[in-house]
Amino acid sequence: MRFQLANITAVLTGAASGIGAALAPRLAAKGAHLALVDRDAAGLARVAAAAGVKGRITTHEIDVADAAAMPALAAAVQAAHGNAGLVIGNAGVALVGTFEQASLADFEWLMNINFWGAVRLVHAFLPQLRAAPAGQIALTSSIFGLIAPPGQAAYAAAKFALRGFGESLRHELSGTDIGVTLIHPGGIDTNIARGARIGSGVDPAAAKAGLALFQKLLRTSPDVAAAKIIAAIEQRRPRLLIGGDAYRVDVIQRLAPARYWRLIAPRDAGLTDLTKS
Asked: Which of 104, 119, 210, 239 is the most buried (most CB within 10 A)?
């Protein structure tokens, strides 16, 4: 059954930029009420002003890594909007460096946002989704939730974990009115690379050069990605790949699960350059 976005309340993390900022006006155009979440208050204000919302809109300046913030967010959304019908876990950050070049604090910082932020979001809002006539959860994993390149140990760990969490959750919710869509974007032209944290053991000059090269691989626009995500949510699709690169690596890792990097690395050299210092 098609998921109707009109008159539902959509909770969107990572809403101040990138895919999140592109999703907000598209959700608004479908008639959804919006609860926009990000730690960037100025960015949230810009997105909210540009969204063209006909219904209710609230902004919530929250760091998704803050465990105590999620129950408070759920209470604030319910007070302002009633029960949420759609929850989109989209907040994410990047970390430059191999496992040895990054500190455990760096690793934990990324996991707290990319993985635990999404888990806590779903945990806080699942009672509201159960109380709504129908509910949908959308989680932004990554192409690196399908493959694990060198220099991306923390990011891949978080995105693989998010994929596993989402798939298990979908199976647990089978037979209910709550669906789960897992999103695996390829290279989306957002600020995630430009805003990446540099591992404590990485040479800053080498990291800057590697990130500049990596940025050139990000070819799909956030608006194109947002359009595909909205369609997948409405269709209640369990899985969405975005971009030709995502489809290509999905096929290659299926055909060569232990050797895929030998086949991919020569064509995506920019990914490995991030680990050189």
From this structure: 210
